[in-house]
Amino acid sequence: MSGQPAAHEAARIRRLRKGFGAHLVFDGLDLDVAQGERVAILGVSGCGKSTLLRCIAGLERPDDGTIVTAGEIGIVFQEPRLFPWLDVRRNVAFAARNDVERTRVDNVLALVGMLHVGDRLPKALSGGMAQRVALARSLVRDPALLLLDEPFAALDALRRIELRAAVREILEFTRAGAILVTHDVDDALALADRIIVLAGSPAEIVFTGTVGENATRTAVLGALGVSDQGLHARRASAS
Amino acid sequence: MGRFVLPLGLLVLWWAATASGAVKSYQLAGPRDVVRELGDLAQSGALWHDLGASVTRVACGFAIAFALALLLGSIVGGSRRAERALDPTLQAVRAVPSLAWVPLILLWLGIGETAKITLVAIGAFFPIYVALVAGIRGVDRKLVEVGTSFGLSRFALISRVLVPATLPQLLVGARIGLTQAWLFVVAAELLAATSGLGFLLTDGQQTARTDEILVAILLFAACGKLSESAMRVLERRLVGWTDTVPV
What we know:
The complex is a heterodimer of chains A (239) and B (247). Chain A contains nine helices and nine strands. In chain A, the strands form two sheets. A six-stranded mixed β-sheet of chain A has the order 5-6-7-3-8-9, with helices on both faces. Chain A has 239 residues and is of the alpha/beta class. Chain B is mostly helical and 247 residues long. In chain B, helix 6 packs antiparallel against helix 8, helix 8 packs antiparallel against helix 10 and helix 9 packs antiparallel against helix 10.
């Protein structure tokens, strides 16, 4: 299957198959992301969430199946991955291909609250600031879909909450869709419209739910095979 | 201030040892004799002639070494196949102490400028080559991936990611290569030369003029220090962005 996704779709994945050596990560995965939709993908470490994101970003080549996306894609990795030899403004401008995108550099820096450090080198930034700059860089091409690969994982708890709020605002402002890969249920609940849980080998979607409806904290944790009930409560319900 | 204490102390000791007659002048000339000799050489023009000859040899040899290292280092660093084909041989050649090539070079190229510049180039080549290959191999794959995710062409990936990422290592290699170049120009000029600072050394030895020898040694020290400082300035200007303590 190929061609353009339907008008309301940001990404359409069909029969995705991807393996590394003998290990099959996906064998026939289907996933649709609507335009402007924010999907969080949860799963235990090594279940294939990042591989899925990397396939969508074009950093991994699927063995089979199709991935079609509408418009530009922006990606933010777990680490900021800024170029140490470029100052903040040039790092963001790195993604720009033309004058229109270059004029956007200061706007996206302001959007992430980092315009005042535009002349600094990455070595002079804290982890949270650097990740904001990386976020700005992913926005320069005005992406229809943002791929966020555990973007808060390297931050401390407070920076994490701050950046999560910033990402939320930005997604609302830019109306970009997003696929957030995370192992943190709170990240998913705070940012996503829809939560998907991947599990198994090859990985399959074992849970999908809408935040505010069936995707509650307990339901998602249950799908991940974790209980947020204390031992006492579990014993009580068992008896 | 602290940095001047030891050199000044040595100078005083040198002066005291020679002025008191404890050390004979044919063993070690005193500071005043050395300064006088330096002045005489400068006045007669011999100083500039010899200095110019050595600097030219170092500059030519280093330039050739740098160009070759850039070419071979990029090829070997950029392709595993080229590495398998070229690197073992280059490493084997590198294992030979460079001065061991001298007899062959003299046989093949005679005792002219070509032989001297070749020897300097051999000495300067390997530090630059090794540093460049290590630099290319050490480029953070995650940064390359950022370039890939933005759809950069192969050329853009090289010019915008690989070259700047490799530059710090290359410059360190070039600095070491330049030091090696000075080392090898001494060797080349000691063997067979009618000009150059190394010639001053042999001339001083043959005529038992320790003042002349010391002038040559001091000039070598000054040239080596000067070129190293210049390389450091270049490093600071070009790769001041690195987050490491300079070595």
